[in-house]
Structure formats: structure tokens, C-alpha cells
């Protein structure tokens, strides 16, 4: 692929590290597949302009933690893809999904045990991305109404990100769900990994296993501060 056509999709801090993959044959294969699918009338989420959005809003030199989850949302809402290119984010449709709701409630339970009445269950996760949390899907695209069917296609890209970039940074990595666990072996020796269960649908409680506290303690021990995991609406 032509790097000049892609570089505006990434924050400039990623350019030097991501360019080798964009110019690789593996990237050519990914985009050959996506173009053929689109030409055949297949609807793909997220919109192509948002495919790499998580790498644009979270600068590489500010990454404190990586969360890898499942595939992008494969559903559409009012004929718009829910997926935005940022894990769990629903800022296009402005409708909090059951998975995102469970994400919030699991973290609130861990830190506040149900007594925090001021945190915001926002559909927009830019607040976390801007705090140094790289919110990464285990594949960057998915076919409409076909759960996780592009996982194999994106393996080379996700593997490159983890092996060639993240593994050198010694940042904690949270793996949410079965697809994310596949990548555990790539960085098990270089990064501290926290495996968590899949975020389920309505009525399914999510056990965080105190992971977000552990991550903050690790960051503080490395003089990196900590992450405010919930968006708190202070009442004054």
C-alpha cells in the first residue's frame, strides 16, 4: 500500500513504527480482500475512514495501557455501523451497547462497589483514549451481521502491533474475551498481561478481577501515574 495514502489516518507519533507494515505484502493482502468484498456489495464496519481511528486519537508516546477486546460491533443502528474504530466506543450511534454498559458497571463495582452515582456511562470513549489507553479490537473490520468474521484477515496486523511495537514498551495489556487471548503468547514474556472474560449482553455481570486497580498500581510503581477509568461528573 502507498504510505502517503495512509499516514493521515495515524497520529504522527505512530508513523515511523507503523509504516513498515502499511508498505508490506501483508497489508496489500488485507486491502485486496476488503476492496473485493466492498466491490461485491458486502457491508463492512466500521466505515473505512474510521478503520485506524484508535491509532489517531491515542498517541504512541502517551500509551500507558493497551486493552484488546473482540471484533468491532457487527450490527448497524438506523443504517449506520455502531463500530467507530475504537474498542467498545459507540459515538456514532450514541447508544450505549450492553457490552459497554457491562464494561462501565464492572469497573464501577471494582472501584466503588455500587455507590458511585456521578460517573457517566458515555457512548464516547475518547476520554479513556486521551488518558493513554489504547482501545484495540482484535480485528479492525467485520462484515455486517457476521460476528468476528475478519479475525483471520487482521492477524498479521495485530501481531505486528504487539510484537514490533507494544512488546518494546513494557506497558500492561488487558485481554478481554476469547479472540484477544490468542495474542497472549506474542507478548507474554515482554508485557504484564491481565486476561479477562468476554463482555456479555444484558443481565450478564462482568468480573474485572480487580484488574484495573492492579494496572494503576503497576503504573504508579513505574512513576507513570494512574488512569481514571471512569468519566466522573463532579457535582460542583
SS-based class: alpha/beta
* Total of DSSP H or I helical runs spanning 4+ residues: 9
CATH architecture: 3-Layer(aba) Sandwich
CATH T-level topology: Uracil-DNA Glycosylase, subunit E
Poorly predicted regions are: none
Strand ordering within the main sheet = 6-2-8-9
Shape: globular
Q: Element order, helices and strands?
A: HHEHEEEHEHEEHEHHEHE
- The Cα radius of gyration reads 17 Å
Average pLDDT score: 94
Largest sheet: 4 strands, parallel
**CATH homologous superfamily identity:** Uracil-DNA glycosylase-like domain
Number of domains: 1
Helix content: 25-40%
Quickly describe the structure:
This protein is of the alpha/beta class and 236 residues long.
SSE blueprint and pairings:
Blueprint: H1 15-22, H2 25-39, E1 44-45, H3 53-57, E2 65-68, E3 76-77, E4 80-81, H4 98-112, E5 119-120, H5 126-129, E6 133-136, E7 142-143, H6 151-165, E8 173-176, H7 178-181, H8 184-187, E9 193-196, H9 211-221, E10 231-232
Parallel strand pairs: 2-6, 2-8, 8-9
Antiparallel strand pairs: 1-7, 3-4, 5-10
Helix pairs in contact: 2-6
